[in-house]
Amino acid sequence: MAQKLRIIKKYPNRRLYDTEISSYITLEEVRQLVLDGETFEVRDAKSGEDLTRSVLLQIISEHEEKGQPMLSPQLLSQIIRFYGDSLQGFMGPYLERSLQVFLDQQQQFRAQLNSLMGQTPWSMLNELTERNLDAWKTMQRGFLDAAAQTPPNKNRKG
């Protein structure tokens, strides 16, 4: 079942009203909606204009000011240079795909780390030894098969 689109109205006084819970919410609560994977749009209460990107950028901006920023001045400068460039239309989808690949790799790494956490050092060592032994057997089998297929040298004196 598709997730229902949650509408958040933004009023001229900059307050955000969540129509699903009939209550005003903060930017931090909008951030939590993002973290929870909620599908939502922020709309201007009067005109109905979509303000979602603007609000998301505001959240990013506030988090960049606190703690350790993710976006360096160099990265931001490079992004700004793409505005108006002939490749501007390719930049967004490229960044989205790159971030998705990063997220997929991060999820895979976490899964591998979690599977390792359940193992003792001895079980990890045994597993590594078994893999190395299998690789060694495969390599030996390859040498033996290659040697068996090599025709005997007729010029050899015996």
From TrEMBL:
What are the recorded Gene Ontology BP terms? regulation of DNA-templated transcription
Which Pfam families does the entry mention?
A: PHB_acc, PHB_acc_N
Q: Which domain of life is it from?
A: Bacteria
Q: Where in this chain does the record put each PHB accumulation regulatory domain?
A: 71-110
Q: Which residues form the PHA accumulation regulator DNA-binding N-terminal domain?
A: 7-67
- What name does UniProt use for this protein? Polyhydroxyalkanoate synthesis repressor PhaR
**What taxonomic ancestry is recorded?**
Bacteria, Pseudomonadati, Pseudomonadota, Gammaproteobacteria, Lysobacterales
